[in-house]
Amino acid sequence: MGLVQKVLTALALWCLIVNTREIAACTAAERGALVAFNASINDPYGRLSSWRGENCCSWSGVRCSKKTSRVIQLDLGEFALQGEISPTLAALTDLVYLNLSQNDFGGVSIPEFIGSFKMLRYLDLSGAHFGGPVPPQLGNLSRLQRLDLSGSQMITVDNFHWVSKLTSLRYLDLSWLYLAASLDWLQAVNMLPLLQVLHLNDASLPATNLNSFPQVNFTTLKILDLKSNTNLNSSLPSWIWNLSSLSGLELSSCGLSGVIPDELGKLTSLKFVGLTDNKLEGSIPRSVSGLCNLVRLDLSGNLLSGDISVIAKTLLPCMKQLQILDLAANKLKGNLSGWLEQMASLRVLDLSKNSLSGDVPASMGKLSNLTHLDISSNSFGGTLSEQHFVNLSGLDTLILSSNALKIVMKPSWVPPFQLREVGMHTCLVGPQFPTWLQSQTRIEKIDVGSAGISGMLPDWIWTFSSSLTSLNVSTNNITGKLPASLEQLKMLTILNMRYNQLEGRIPDLPTGVQVLDLSHNYLSGSLPQSFGGNEFYYLLLSNNSLSGVIPTDLCNMVSMEVIDLSSNNLSGELPDCWNKNSKLYIIDFSSNKLWGEIPSTMGSLNSLITLDLGKNNLSGILPTSLQSCNRLVLLDLGDNNLSGNIPKWIGDGLQTLQFLRLRSNQFSGEIPEVLSQLHALQYLDLSNNKLSGPVPHFLGNLTSMYMHNPEWDTSPFTEFMVYGVGGAYFSVYTFSLRATYKGEAVIFRKYYNRLTSIDLSANQLTGEIPSEIRFLSALFNLNLSRNHIGGSIPDEIGSMIYLESMDLSWNDLSGSIPQSLTSLPSLGYLDLSYNDLSGKIPYQDQLATFSASSFLGNVDLCGAPLSTICLPNNNNKHFDTMTYLCMMLGFASGFSIVWSILIYSAAARKVYFQFTDGILDKLRAAADIKLHTNRMLAGRDLSIPTGSQNSITRYHFGGPSTAAWRNIS
Ligand SMILES: *[C@@H]1O[C@H](CO)[C@@H](O)[C@H](O)[C@H]1NC(C)=O
Ligand SMILES: *[C@@H]1O[C@H](CO)[C@@H](O)[C@H](O)[C@H]1NC(C)=O
Ligand SMILES: *[C@@H]1O[C@H](CO)[C@@H](O)[C@H](O)[C@H]1NC(C)=O
C-alpha cells in the first residue's frame, strides 16, 4: 500500500537530509529541549543512549538543517519509549519531520504544542498510545503532507474542522480512532484537494449517506480505505467512479447495499478491490474486463449472483496479474470448466459457500502458483485425482469440504506440496484413510470427518506431523483402539473422533488439549485420573461404555466450559470438590449409574446453564446450595431416587430456569406455590413422583406459557462451536431434553420455542383442573393423567390453541367433554380414557381425528367413535324414530350405525364411501403432518452465522435471557 508513495516521500526526505547533512552543531536551546525530553521520558531499551555530548545533531533520531543548524527531524518511531513528553520540545520550531510512532505514552493527550511546528510536513503518532481528543491546534499545520494517528483507540475526534485546514495533506490515516461524533468527516476530507491516501479503517464512522455528497475535490486519491465502518449503511457512492487514479479500494464491512455499478470498470488503475462482507447484490459487472491491473479482487460475503464462468471469462483477457480472487459466500452458480487453468497467476482462490457445480477440471493442476484453494460448501461432483495437483507445489491450504467430491489417490502418490491445512469433510475419501497425508509432515489441521473412512487408523497418524493441532475424523466407521498415549502430539488442541467405532481406553493426552470429543464410540475402562493440562474447554465422552468414577481432577480444570459424560456406565458418587473458579456452563452426567447425594459444592458452579443428572441412581434431598446456580436454564434431575419436598428455593433462586424436569423420583408433598415465580419456565415435568394435594391453581401464573414469544425462535442457549479447517465448525453441545410427548418418550435435540409443557402425570394429585389453565394458551403439551383429579374438564381448555398433546386419562373426571375441544386445531394426541366422563362425544372437527382409544373406559360416554350409541334420553334429540330404529337394527345385527342407514339409499351409500375415503385421506394427512412436526422438532436447524476463524468460538443466540449469556462470556 502506497509503496511508491512511501519511497518518494523517503527520497524527498533523504534529499533534504543529505543537503543538510554536514553536521552542524545544534543550538543550545534545542539541545536543552532534547535533554529535558530525555530526562522526562522512560527509555527501557536504552535507545537514547547516544544522546550525550554537545552536538545534538548527531544523536540518534535527530537531524539538523545544514544551513540553520536547527533540528528539522525527530525520528523516534519504535523506540519503545514510555512516559511523558516534556513540553520543552516545543522549542524545536523548525521541525519538518516528527515520528513518535510505536511508543507508549500511556493514554496522555497529544501535546498541543505539536500544532506550533509550522514547518511540519510529516507527523506520525501511530500506535503511540495517545488518548483523549485530538487538539484542534493540529489544524495549524498547513504544510503537513502526511498525518498518521492510527491505532490509538483511546483518541477521539469530535469534529473534523481541524482536518479541513490541513490543505497540503497527501496522506491521512486515522484508522482505529473513535470518530463516531465526526459527522462532518467527509465534508472535511473534501477540503483536501491533494489527498492521495485515506485510511479510516475501523474508526466507528457515523452513519453517512455517502451518496448525498456533491462532488469530490480529492480527485487524485489513490487509496480509499473505509473498511469496517459498519454504520455507513449506504450504496456504493457514484463519486468513487471519478477517482481515476484509484489503485486501492477497500470498503469491506461497511454495510454497503445495492449493486456494483458498471462504472467500476472506469477505474483502470485499480489493483486492490476489497468489498467483502457487505450486502451487495446483482452480478459482478462485465466492465471488470477493463481492470487489467487487478492483483486482488475480494468480493466475498455478499449476495452476488450470476454465473462464475461468465465472470471469469470476462476477467480473463487481461488477467495477467490477478493473484487473489475471493468470491466466497455469495450466490454464484456455474462451473470451473474452460477458465480456471487460464488464471495462471492465481495464488489464492476462494470460491467457498456458493452454488457452484460440475466437475473440478484436472487442468487445475496447472495453477503452479496456487497456495490457497478453498472450494468448500458448493455442489461440486466428480472425482479428484493426482492430476488435479500435479504442479501445485506451493499449495499450503486445500479445502474441499462439503461437496459431493470423490478423492481418489494412488496409495503410492507423493504430493508435490506440503500442506498446513486440509479439509475434506463430507467428501468421499475412504474407505481407507488417505495414505498420501503421511507425506505432509508440516500439517497442522486435518478435517476428514464424514468422509466414508472405515477400518483402523494407520499408526503413523499419531507421529507423522509434530505440528498437528487439530484432527477431525468424526462420523466415519473407524475401528480399533487409540494409542495409550498421545503425549507426543505436543501441539494438539482439538481432537474430534466422535461417531466412530473406537474401542479401548481413553489415551493420555498432551497438556495443551482444549477440545476432546470421543463421544459415540465403544470406549471402555475408567476415565483418566488427569486430563493433561488446564487448557480444556470441552470434554465430550458421551455414549461410550466408560466405567469407574468421575475423577476429581475435573473440578480443577478452570477453563472447562462443557463436560458431557452422559450415556456411559460411570458409577460411584459425584465429585464433591467443585469451586467458584469454574467457568462451567454445561454439565451432563445423565444416563449413568451414579449414586449418592448431589454434592453441595455443585452450588458453587454459578455459571451453569445446564445441569443434567437425569437417569442415574442419585438419592437424598436436593442440596440448598443449588439455589446459587442462578443462571440455570435447564435442570434435569429426572429418573433418579431423589426424595423430600420439591424445595421452595427453586422458585426463589433459579429465576432463569426454563426447563425443570424432576420426573420419576420420590418427591412428595404439595407442589410449592413459589414455582409460579419462575417467569421463564416453559417446561415443567414433575411426573411419576409422590406429589399430593390439589392441582395447583397457580399454574395459571406461569406467564412464559401465555404466549409464544417470537424472540424465542432461536435458542437462548449458548451454542458451543469449534472451528476446524476453513470455515467448518462443529457444535459441541446442543440442547437436548428427554420429554414425554404424545404418549411416547422422545428426545428433543434442538431447542424449540414451542416446547411448552406441563406434565404432572402419575402422582397423587386431587382437586379439579384449575380453570386458570386457560391462560396457558402457548402450552403444547398437557399431561395430568394417572392422578385422582375430579370435577369436569373446564370449557376454557379450548383457548389453549397450540395444544398438540393432551392426556387426562386415568383420573376421576366427570361431566361431558366440552364442545370447545373440537376447536383445538393442532391437537394431534388426546387421551381422555378411564375417567367418568359422560354424554355424547362432540365428534367433529379436530376431535373427529381421534379413534375410540382416546375415549375408552368412560362408561357413560357415547357416540362416535365409540360403538356405544347415545340414547335419546341421554341428552340426544337429533335422531328421529325411524333412524333410531334402523340404527338399533344395524347395531343388533353387528354392523355400524352408518351401514344400517345405508340400506336405504344407493345415493347415501355413495356419499358414505366418499366420506370414508375422505376420512382415510385426512387421517393419512394427519399422520404425515405428525411425522413432519416430529422431524421439525428433532431436526430443526439453527442458523449459524459465518465468520470467525478462531478455533473456538461461542455463538450466542437471541432469546429471553440473551443479555445474561452475553455477560457470561
Ligand atoms: C474543494 O476544496 C477547496 C479548497 O480546499 C474548497 O474551497 C472547496 O469548498 C471544496 N469543494 C467542495 C465541494 O467541498
Ligand atoms: C508465479 O510466481 C512467480 C514468483 O512470484 C512469478 O515470477 C511468476 O510470474 C508467477 N507465474 C505466473 C504464471 O504468474
Ligand atoms: C458405517 O458402516 C455401516 C455399515 O457398513 C454403514 O451403514 C454406515 O453408513 C457407515 N457409517 C459411516 C458414517 O460411514
TrEMBL record:
Compartments it resides in: Cell membrane
Main location: membrane
SMART domains recorded: LRR_TYP
Pfam families assigned: LRR_1, LRR_14, LRR_8, LRRNT_2
Swiss-Prot/TrEMBL GO biological process terms: anatomical structure morphogenesis; brassinosteroid mediated signaling pathway; plant organ development
Signal sequence residues: 1-20
Disease resistance R13L4/SHOC-2-like LRR domain sequence ranges: 214-437
Membrane topology: Single-pass type I membrane protein
Transmembrane helix is among the record's keywords: yes
Any Gene Ontology CC annotation: plasma membrane
Family to which the UniProt record says this protein belongs: Belongs to the RLP family.
Name this polypeptide is given: Uncharacterized protein
Native source organism of the sequence: Panicum hallii var. hallii
